[in-house]
Fold:
Amino acid sequence: MINIPQNCPECGQMYRKADATIVSENKNNFLFHLTCDKCQVSTLMHVQIGARGILSVVKITDAGKKDIDKLRGNKSVSTDDVIEAYLALKELN
Ligand SMILES: [Zn+2]
Structure:
């Protein structure tokens, strides 16, 4: 698992690896769901590993860890939702 050099966008608390769940994983693309230990705000983090380094985009989400677990357990729903999350993150770029 790659390192997560991120702080909570809400309160600034540094994320720990234990706060992160991998939603999807490709060769150079990772989508993590993180829940802040301090303020409990959930975020989606899209990490892209490119030739010029690691690019990460963070977006606050309403989806809790339970929702993500559900998503991951249900492949047919998961694909659409992951794509939607990707697109939402892309807009921030
Ligand atoms: Zn926080």
